[in-house]
Design brief:
Number of helices: 11
Helix content: 10-25%
Largest sheet: 7 strands, mixed
Order of helices and strands: EEEHEEHEEEEHHEHEHEHEHEHEHEHE
Distance between the termini: 19 Å
Radius of gyration: 21 Å
Number of strands: 17
Strand content: 15-25%
Structural class: alpha/beta
Length: about 375
C-alpha cells in the first residue's frame, strides 16, 4: 500500500467557487476512500463542454463550491474496504457514468444505464454516506458526476473507475473517458452504418468529430458534416468528413438540402448538438425504408421533439445513445486497445495543452470555439 493510504491528502485542486467565475487553484484536503471507493492520483484532464456548461450553471441547479472535471486519466493511490478488482498503481480512467455489474441494466446486454451509478449532475456527495471527500478549512467542497478530476487527487466509486493497459499513454487515452466514446460509439454501436453508406453528422465539436471518425472506420462512402460554424469544416476533413452544409447558407430546411444531395436521404445520421431543431433535421434527413437517426446531444429541459408520424411509418428509425452505448468497465479497456493497435486515432482530437495552473485558459479556448480538446497536465 502507498504511504498515504488511510490518511488525508493535501493537494492542489481547481475550485469553482461560483458560476462563471474563473476557477481558483486551492490547497484542499482529500479524505481516504470509504467502502467501495477508490482514491486516484489524476495525471491528465481534458476539458469537455459539460464541465463548461455546469460551471456556467445555465439551466440547471447550481451547486458551489465544486470541483469539476470528468474526462481524465490517472493511477490508483489507495482503495477502500471491499474493493478487490483494483489496487494501488493501476492505470485507470474515471468515468462519469458507472457499471455496478449487479442491476438490471448492467446485466442486460443492451443497456449501459447503470441504476446505481448512471450520471447524476445534481449530486455533489458520495453515495456511501452522502458526504464529500473534499474539504477546505473544514468546509465541504462538492463533487461533480462522481469524478471531480480537476484535483490532483480525487475519490470515486469503484464502479466508475476503469482499469486499462498500463502501456497506454494517459495523456492521449484520457479523452476516451467521455467525448470520444460518446460520439464514436453512437456511430459504431448504435447507428451501425454499413460499408459504403452515407452518413450525416450534425455538430462538428469533439463529439461530432468522434461520430464522424466512427463513420470513417466503418467504411462510409460519404460523410456529410452539418454545422452553423463554417470554421469547423477544415478540421473535420481529418475525420473523414468530405462534404459540408451550413444551414444558414440555405433558405430551406437542412433536411431537404441533404435529401437532394443524397437522392432521398442519408443511410444514417448522428446528432451531436443538443439543439432540438437539429434533432428533427437529423431524423427527417434519413432515407425512408432503412434510414436510422441517432440522437446524442442533450436537449434543454423544456424542449419537445415534433415530427409527422408518417416519417416513422415510412420506416425511418429514431434512436438515442448514451455514452456511445459503452459499458465503462466492460468495454472501455477494449477501446483503449483499439487505440494501441492503431485501429482508431486519438492524437488528432488534441489541439491544445496547458499546465494545471493555466486551467482557465482551457476554458477560454473552448468558449472561443478554438480547437477540439485541450489537455490539462496536472503536474504533481
Amino acid at each position: 500500500m502507498s504511504n498515504t493510504a488511510g490518511k488525508v491528502i493535501k493537494c492542489k485542486a481547481a475550485v469553482a467557487w461560483e458560476a462563471g467565475k474563473p476557477l481558483v487553484i486551492e490547497e484542499v484536503e482529500v479524505a481516504p476512500p470509504q467502502k467501495h471507493e477508490v482514491r486516484l492520483k489524476i495525471l491528465f484532464n481534458a476539458l469537455c463542454h459539460t464541465d463548461v456548461y455546469f460551471w456556467e450553471a445555465k439551466g440547471q441547479n447550481p451547486l458551489f463550491p465544486r470541483i469539476l472535471g470528468h474526462e481524465a486519466a490517472g493511477i490508483v493511490e489507495s482503495v477502500g474496504e471491499g474493493v478487490t478488482e483494483l489496487r494501488p498503481g493501476d492505470h485507470v480512467l474515471p468515468v462519469f457514468t458507472g457499471e455496478c455489474r449487479e442491476c438490471a441494466h448492467c446485466k442486460s446486454e443492451e443497456s449501459n444505464l447503470c441504476e446505481l451509478l448512471r450520471i447524476n449532475t445534481d449530486r455533489g456527495t458520495m453515495l456511501n454516506d452522502g458526504k464529500t471527500r473534499f474539504s477546505k478549512d473544514g468546509k465541504p467542497i462538492y463533487h461533480f458526476v462522481g469524478t471531480s478530476t480537476f484535483s490532483q487527487y480525487t475519490v470515486s466509486h469503484v464502479g466508475s473507475v476503469v482499469k486499462i493497459n498500463p502501456a497506454a499513454p494517459l495523456d492521449k487515452v484520457c479523452i476516451l473517458s467521455c467525448g470520444v466514446c460518446t460520439g464514436f460509439g453512437a456511430t459504431v454501436n448504435v447507428a451501425k452504418p454499413k460499408k459504403g453508406s452515407t452518413v450525416a453528422i450534425f455538430g462538428l465539436g469533439a463529439v461530432g468529430l468522434a461520430a464522424a471518425e466512427g463513420a470513417r472506420v466503418s467504411g462510409a462512402s460519404r460523410i456529410i458534416g452539418v454545422d452553423l460554424n463554417s470554421n469547423r469544416f477544415e478540421a473535420a476533413k481529418k475525420f473523414g468528413v468530405s462534404e459540408f452544409v451550413n444551414p444558414k447558407d440555405h433558405n430551406k430546411p437542412v433536411q431537404e438540402v441533404i435529401a437532394e444531395m443524397t437522392n432521398g436521404g442519408v443511410d444514417r445520421s448522428v446528432e451531436c448538438t443538443g439543439s432540438v431543431q437539429a434533432m428533427i433535421s437529423a431524423f427527417e434527413c434519413v432515407h425512408d425504408g432503412w434510414g436510422v437517426a441517432v440522437l446524442v446531444g442533450v436537449p434543454k429541459k423544456d424542449d419537445e421533439f415534433k415530427t409527422h408520424p408518417m416519417n416513422f411509418l415510412q420506416e425511418r428509425t429514431l434512436k438515442g445513445a448514451f455514452y456511445g452505448n459503452y459499458k465503462p468497465r466492460t468495454d472501455l479497456p477494449g477501446v483503449v486497445e483499439k487505440y494501441m493497435n492503431k485501429e482508431m486515432e486519438l492524437d488528432k482530437f488534441i489541439t491544445h495543452s496547458v499546465p494545471f495552473y493555466e486551467i482557465n485558459k482551457a476554458f477560454e479556448y473552448m468558449l472561443a470555439g478554438q480547437g477540439i480538446r485541450c489537455i490539462i497536465r496536472m503536474e504533481h
